[in-house]
């Protein structure tokens, strides 16, 4: 009687173990596939961020050659070419991305960005015009604003800049661009306000600090603005203010500011020294 009970139990245990092994193998396969995909994504992210641009271009060129139907590799190549400063090649790479059946509106926006980097403003406008208005992204509107700026369409530019600012949590860069647009139009008060706002979002954005000094100098206010700055930045901003003063005919003020720049800089400030020597000559 005992033997009759043991046999069914053994058979049942074998079936359970067999089922567990089958399930385990499937789980392992999925885990391996997921790990490989995650690793590929990690490598791609590294190549697009911290890797040396030329190395990234070579990596994605190999991937595109080995996997010609993978759109992510094509995108990676296009972005790497932009990082490497090879903008004309980047334009061609983004055009190839757009031939892929999985290409989307954001790829079209990236092509417009690459065209702007080659100063093909007309081409960028044509590409952006092909993007439906329902595709509302920060980058799309930032580029729209830049194109409108290039065409001196100030009302459109302001509208696009405003929309772009509303679509990002990090608007410092676009606020700086908007401020520079205002500065080129001679609206120094608006430019100063926008540069100051940009700095409140990013205290390390030196370009906005430098532009702020230029905007203030436009109305002959040469004192440095009260914004966060390192000692070296202070020296550089004094240098900017000094050159702006000299350009506007306030030579004595400019000389004093340049001397302050030399005295403030933690190291030897060659540019300011040369400017002072030119004045003395």
TrEMBL record:
Q: Provide the alphabetized UniProt keywords.
A: Signal
Name the lineage: Bacteria, Pseudomonadati, Pseudomonadota, Alphaproteobacteria, Rhodobacterales
What is the name of the protein in this document?
Answer: Flp pilus assembly protein TadD, contains TPR repeats
Q: Which residues form the signal peptide?
A: 1-22
Asked if Signal is a keyword of the record, the answer is yes
What top-level branch of life does the organism fall under?
Answer: Bacteria
